[in-house]
Amino acid sequence: MSTATGGTVADDHKVTNTVGMTLVRIDPGSFMMGTTDPEEALFELPDPGKGGIDDELPAHEVRITRTLLIGATEVTQAQWLAVMDSRPGPASHWQRKDWEQLPVVSISWDRVQDFIGAINHLDTRYHYRLPTEAEWEYAARAGREGLRPFPLEELADHAWYIGNSADQPQPVATRKANDWGLYDTLGNAWEWVADWYSPDSYGDNAVSDPAGATTGRARVRRGGSYHCPAHLVRPGYRAADAPDKHYSVLGFRLVAESRSADTVPMPRTDIPKP
């Protein structure tokens, strides 16, 4: 497989925050965003005449100019509980012996913003946000091009999807990490990103740090889930939902940015409960 430029993982590439999230530091670089081999993508579709991949085209060069500090995994139920003191999603997920390490799901995009507000008051070292769609795909591809960063035959080694999950969420970081140390970017839970969805937001020209459409009706989600067939579980596949949508295969991971001491707010003791 070919490799994008830059994007190596820095030597001091992992930190752990106050609620136990491991964050991986990824250097700036460039990559081809979108689908560079549309014929192969269409071949995987069960019905190429429906849906298609038009919103993944044209593949175009994107430059990520800032170092990323991104969650090594999706936000877990234990991390959500520590910040929000609530247990969203199916009760059965919280009754499992491995409940702490399951990705938290049934979280709307709007609800993610509540979590971000709360953790930003709890953790004075970092400012948290959702990754942009471009940042997410850059991190998920981990320097690789093609439909996936590995052959389709190896999907079960790298992702929880309908072919190996028993149609149940699985503990994070129990499949292989990608080349940059990120787990479950493909499969397990869909992941919200920051961008509004637009089916024609891709252009032919190279761009730096794109932030997507400025308005819209739906927010983008990426990566597929434990419930998805293989053709949905790849870095270039785009899906979207209304910001208030929540269901049992939908979660998120965060990006953190260091903030200097003179801009850090005092920790709150009155964080509102959901």
Can you give a write-up of this model?
By secondary structure, the chain is an alpha+beta fold. 17% of the residues lie in helices and 21% in strands. The chain has six helices and 13 strands. The strands form three sheets. Strands 2-3-6-13-7 form a five-stranded antiparallel beta sheet. A four-stranded mixed beta sheet has the order 1-4-5-9, covered by helices on one side. A hairpin with a 5-residue loop joins strand 2 and strand 3. It is globular and about 45 Å long. Mean pLDDT is 91; it is low at 261-274.
Q: Secondary-structure map with pairings?
A:
Blueprint: E1 5-6, E2 9-16, E3 22-26, E4 29-33, H1 38-44, E5 60-64, E6 68-71, H2 77-84, H3 91-94, H4 109-122, E7 126-129, H5 133-141, H6 155-158, E8 190-196, E9 207-208, E10 219-222, E11 238-241, E12 250-252, E13 255-258
Parallel strand pairs: 5-9, 8-12
Antiparallel strand pairs: 1-4, 2-3, 3-6, 4-5, 6-13, 7-13, 8-10, 10-11
**H/E series, N to C?**
EEEEHEEHHHEHHEEEEEE
- Report the major sheet: 5 strands, antiparallel
Task: Tell me the distance between the termini.
Answer: 45 Å
Gross morphology is globular
Q: What order do the strands of the largest sheet run in, or round the barrel if closed? A: 2-3-6-13-7
Percent strand equals 15-25%
Number of helices: 6
In terms of per-residue confidence, which ranges show pLDDT below 50 for 5 or more consecutive residues? 261-274
Computed Rg: 18 Å
Global mean pLDDT: 91
Provide the structure class.
alpha+beta
Helix content: 10-25%
Using DSSP, what is the number of strands? 13
